[in-house]
Amino acid sequence: MNREVEVVVTGIGAVTCHGAGADTLWRAMTAAGTRLPDRPADPLARMDLPLISLVPDPDLRAERATRFASLAAAEALSDAGLDRASLAAARTAVVFGSCMGEPGGNERGRGADDGWQPPFRLASALAGELGLFATVHDIGNACAAGGYALGIAADLVRAGEADVAIAGGSDAYSRVALGCFNRLGAVDPERCRPFERDRAGTVFGEGAGVFVIESAAHARARGALSSPDGAPRLTGVAWSCDADHPTAPQADAEQVVRAMREALGAAPDTVGCVVPHGTGTRLNDVLESRALHRALGPRAARVPLYSLKALLGHTGGASAALGAVAAALILRHGEVPPNVPLKEQDPECEVLLPQGDAVPLADGARRVLVNAYGFGGNNASLVLESGTPTGPSGGSAAGERAGAVSGGGVGSVSGGAGSAVGGAVGSVSSGSTWGGAVGSVSGGVRFVSGAAGFAGGGAVAGPRGGSGGVVRRMVEGGGVS
Known about the structure:
Elements: E1 7-16, E2 19-20, H1 22-31, E3 52-53, H2 64-80, H3 84-89, E4 92-97, H4 104-108, H5 122-130, E5 136-139, H6 145-158, E6 164-171, H7 175-184, E7 204-205, E8 207-215, H8 216-221, E9 233-241, H9 254-264, E10 271-275, H10 282-296, H11 308-312, H12 319-333, E11 335-336, E12 359-360, E13 367-374, E14 378-385, E15 419-421, H13 469-475
Parallel strand pairs: 3-7, 4-5, 4-6, 10-13
Antiparallel strand pairs: 1-2, 1-8, 1-15, 6-8, 9-14, 11-12, 13-14
Helix pairs in contact: 2-5, 6-12, 9-10
């Protein structure tokens, strides 16, 4: 693999419970408002806490995750200034991560004539929509999937296997997933409240985050690198696996710390913000807080965290991709927005969560660490940093390009900041499998096999008081990641 190839992300796109568009996400981040979760209009969601932060799209029928992926990708492509003709002329790859893939048809179409459909088909659906016939990969390793997708896409470009890659994550409402978390006792009855003293679990959210990734040479040749400010770069991507427990993170957090350290490299002092995994579960928030102190050293308690899941809910396989979009926006605006207000922070979570006012990124600390962890012990950490002029034209991702996108009942979107990718990618070891292995990638890109996370151990949504002891026993004394 050619590590000398500079890789940039020339476009970003987002769909969240606050609406469509990266600019919509940024406005929600800066407003720091509390959004209560929704109750889906699904009469068969017979469970104690059918709570999820839904994208404002009233159609709960099949292909919801695919619509979100398509909408976010359309925004990212508009931001990058790429159309179907230019994508066809380049070697364009598509890499997408998801927890549940496209579950809607299988969950709500039981007994239909068309039968069961493979759920992990987001990447292939998007490639088909765009008329692409190059490398296409779906990544299914639980809530770290979006982080793996971005890393694999960067590897494809560095290895010379693709000139352009459309990469990210998407997840939508799944009755099965929500039923499993109800059986696990892992749903907060109020909302997703990471790092609060009395938090009681997580709350899912729908959404998609997408980056357009390409080599700097390709972007420069088509005139996309023109801003004097330079493009933010993704300088670190590291993966690890606990290989310890199906649902709970390893108690010593050794592999979590390893992923952060490998992504950060030799300069942890230059981190100005962390977008944590921070699910709101009792175990995860404490473990991640302690791991951050090990990875960042003495200044860990002074590095501001931006808790994205408090704003959006836990978007599953999209969470790392949306975390990376949030990181790019933080770098673009040069400040960490205030967090959704905490009632009382857990004293065991000794981290800084700014309240009330934005915190400017300090000079010399314009790097953002993004963490994502998933069932099966899958860990991913990403580091984005502010760009510097590159190449003969000064080099930067195209920014501020607006593009209206319609479809799926979600409103218009406009472009946000670009970012860039570079640096080494950490090693991968397999976790527990679900939904099949991810295929190999040629040209020196590592093989990811069986890295999908555990998805509930056979528990099903059903009436209150039903069986579910198998799943409960799997998290006794440990909780979920």
